[in-house]
Amino acid sequence: MLNPDLKLNEKLFDADVEKKATREGYGTGLVAVGDKDKNVVALSADLTESTKADAFAKKYPERFFEMGVAEQNMAAIAAGLAESGKIPFISSYATFSPGKNWETIRTTIVYNEANVKIAGHHAGVMTGPDGATHQATEDIAITRVWPIIKVLVPCDSIEAEKATIKAGEIKGPVYLRFTRDKTPVITTQDTPFEIGKSNIYWISDSPQVSIFATGYMLYYALLAAKQLEAENVQVEVINVASIKPLDTDSILESIKKTRCAVSVEDHQAAGGLGGLLSEVFASENPVPMEFIGLQDTFAESGKPEELLKKYKMHTPDIISAAKKAISRK
Amino acid sequence: MVDLTDSQIIDLEKKANEARQLLIETLLTAESGHSGGPLGLADIFTAFYFHILKQDPKNPDWEDRDRLVLSNGHVCPIRYVSMAMAGYFPVEELKTLRKINSRLQGHPHRGALPGVETTSGPLGEGLSQAIGMALAAKLDQKTYRIYCIASDGEHQEGNTWEAAMIAPKYKLDNLTLIIDRNNIQIDGNTEDIVPLEPLRLKYETFGWNVLEIDGNNIRGFIDGINSAASVRERPTCIIAHTIPGCGVSFMENDYTWHGKPPNAEEAAKALSELKAAGAKL
């Protein structure tokens, strides 16, 4: 069942569940953090409206900087602003930032330990019709391997707002991942969110498999859990919004109980959440593991749900993976 | 601004000569590092650290200091030498350049050494960072100036032009870019690799105030810097023509000296030339 302690959206499994894009949470979170601290500034690379930096730009025009189509410049200028005491939030599509400007971020932001927050939007195949060039599917892999940086992947618009605000409050570089399309609201304002903490969103008495999900895919993991429960297969679903730092203790505690795992993400199956977890498991407690994500391929243009089905990242795929993991024990 | 007297200029030239000698010794001890660019920039760095910069070597994080961003980070040996001579850290520490556990990283790291405004090495990123600092200064109505030294070769990096395009948009008259126009890069002469000319025209058409000066003439360089301070609403670009390897006859204008240090024999020869030149000042 849904963990009652977390005060989740009770209408989560309704057919007309409320849907909101996580990028909306970035937009409102950015204004909130800008309201509290006048040193917060925002930069955009010609994607202001799409990355929802427009509300901030309108409210604080003197603190908003339009960089044009120049993501490397945006990252390094942000580093310079941070070196002078500002708290810059930079946003673009994740394929371009941290994609195109990966080294610029590495040198001027991460290695410099500059207080810059990087918002990567249009993450995953969920981006839809724009196609693979605009669907960021390797961005968790290329950011989590940097030392120092924190990597946050909120599961819904509410968590996205909290993550954005938290990112603005702490010192140091942060990567935040957002999606384009409206996705189900899973949490409420009362649901806890903490960097470095992962909570169990679906609980069972004797779970047989741990399903770890990051981002909006948590919703599909929860759907899978509900269906599996109806088939008498007990599972545990954990929301890994904080990729880095990882809540290693909670994660290991879960697989100690279940002894097998499934990772679920809108990302390549390699290198992202799955890769991260398998590194932890291999070091501490090797267990059979199945990986839901893009299986070493680029996706394509299409409607998000169609793409999830075609690329085997939908609820039935999660269910099969859970059963397979259990059978491999 | 008061003009420097001839005797003040000679003092600076003596310091630049001393810096060149320290540089050779430092590179020899390090057994790796760049010779051409640092020797060529010794006059400019001396001018910065001993005249131009509003700074406090004992307080490198002083909020109202002038900022000097080094975009072509590989020339850091001459920056480290200048900083040591100016009192940021003991001259003795120069012996640790590029060694393990050293604060003097092969390419400057902000976290390692106070006074190094930013990390650099990968080319094309410094001007952008300087722009960020200049924007912050404008926001906070600060009067300190931001200087950025960049190489000519790194203008082959697209990021440099992104930065060049945006600085005039924000009317950053608190920003001065100094391009070390020494015409060399790793693989040869810049004009054979990817021609940069007409460089002055490029910056002018982008909206910058542009000067061209002899980068090995300290008075000329300081005059150029001073003139930038009175230009409103536009950033200034000083194209500083320097001789790579300046001061060491067998290194001058030879691109093969871009990225290597002198060996013991070469260092001895270089030092004797520099000492002789210093004695004449």
Task: Fill in the keyword field for this structure.
heterodimer; A: 329 residues; alpha/beta; seven-stranded mixed β-sheet; five-stranded mixed β-sheet; 12 helices; B: 281 residues; five-stranded parallel β-sheet; two-stranded antiparallel sheet; 9 helices
Tell me about this structure:
The complex is a heterodimer of chains A (329) and B (281). Chain A has 329 residues and is of the alpha/beta class. Chain A has helices spanning 22-36, 54-59, 71-83, 95-100, 102-110, 139-144, 157-169, 218-230, 248-258, 273-284, 304-310, 315-327; strands at 19-21, 40-44, 64-66, 87-93, 117-121, 150-152, 174-177, 182-184, 199-202, 209-213, 235-239, 242-244, 261-268, 289-294. A seven-stranded mixed sheet of chain A has the order 3-2-4-5-7-6-12, sandwiched between helices. In chain A, strand 13 (261-268), helix 10 (273-284) and strand 14 form a beta-alpha-beta unit. In chain A, helix 8 crosses helix 12. With 281 residues, chain B is of the alpha/beta class. In chain B, 43% of the residues lie in helices and 12% in strands. Chain B is built from nine helices and seven strands, in the order ααβααβαβββααβαβα. Chain B has helices spanning 6-30, 36-52, 76-86, 126-139, 158-169, 190-193, 199-206, 218-229, 264-280, and strands spanning 67-70, 146-151, 175-181, 184-185, 188-189, 209-214, 236-241. In chain B, strands 1-2-3-7-6 form a five-stranded parallel sheet, sandwiched between helices. In chain B, strands 4-5 form a two-stranded antiparallel sheet. In chain B, helix 1 packs across helix 2 (36-52), helix 1 (6-30) packs across helix 3 (76-86) and helix 1 (6-30) packs antiparallel against helix 9. Classes of the chains: A alpha/beta (329), B alpha/beta (281). Chain A binds chain B through residues 41, 62-63, 65, 67-68, 70, 72-73, 75-86, 88, 103-104, 107-108, 111-113, and chain B through 69, 109-111, 117-122, 124-126, 128-137, 139-140, 158-159, 162-163, 165-166, 170.
